Amino acid sequence: MTSSPASVAVLDDDPEFCExxxxxxxxxxxxxxxxxxxxxxxxxxxxxxxxxVVLDVNLPGMxxxxxxxxxxxxxxxxxxxVVVVSGSVTQTPxxxxxxxxxxDEYMTKPLEGELFLARVQTLLRRGGELLxxxxxxxxxxPLTLNLSERSVTLKPNSxxxxxxxxxDLLEYLIRHPNRIITRGILLQEVWRQPPDISSRTIDKHVxxxxxxxxxxxxxxxxxxxxxxxxxxxTAK
Amino acid sequence: xxxxxKTPVILIVDDEEDFRAILKVVLERAGYTVFQAPNGTxxxxxxxxxxxxxxxxxxxxxxxxxxxxxxxxxxxxSGVPILMLTVRSQILTVSEGLAAGVTDYVLKPFDKDDLLKxxxxxxxxx
Lengths: 236, 126
Prior knowledge:
heterodimer; A: alpha/beta; five-stranded parallel β-sheet; four-stranded antiparallel β-sheet; B: alpha/beta; 5 helices; 5 strands; globular
């Protein structure tokens, strides 16, 4: 991770709102760049690789959600966290569409400064732990998960053979670091099953995954009687 | 002379016992008084007797989903803040939940700081 300030790209057609975000984020040490159009923002994201993007859903010209899809489908920009901002809760269909299209967070105007900053910090923390200069790679310490090849390597140069389910499980854990993940959540999100099948199935898969990952597997900790937590800082 | 400030009361309605246990610990450590119910029917009963300051309701429950719980509470005329718990694969239901009167949503697995901010904001909105 770098020690330079995180950069945030903002696209909104309301100059007052841009100024509000600028002041709010700058006060916390973030470097903010405001863009006046979708095209300029896309160009800016590719060139300067910001740590986070804040987008309004209601933009003249290209709709904010169309822009979100472009960002999330472009391998060069897909991993930048995006916060979608909408005018009010009455725009919930847009909000849902945005979340479904890959937005990492949504908020409604007027923004509450403290809450907005807390969510920005959460997203940046999550992104920073996984930051990779190459698309489609999740990197945590010595481990690299290649999402397009669905392969896993551990430094210095060992390839780890995982089953499809083990790969999905590892990706889910890595994408939700430092959060307690119950077996019920894993069943819903990784197994895609209602949370009522035997939890022993999960325990067995986690046990196999840890075994295959060697010392790195210790970063997947058991939370007694509850589930698991992945702690990237302990990964070795 | 006014008495000591009342601790906000939160009711958790979720069929997953493990998840309720985590939420309870996090919220109690943050200073809230927490009650819990294992399903929607029990949640509505407890809501009527406890009259909590905020509800945290899971979307997916076998007897009655979180949206139906929300509808029934709103039908009673209550404006109590309701946070809906959902996993990302069920995010499409957020719209329906917000239309039914849900105040905000929380994605599982949750980030502790984010959850507490949303709870705080929900309580302020009451």
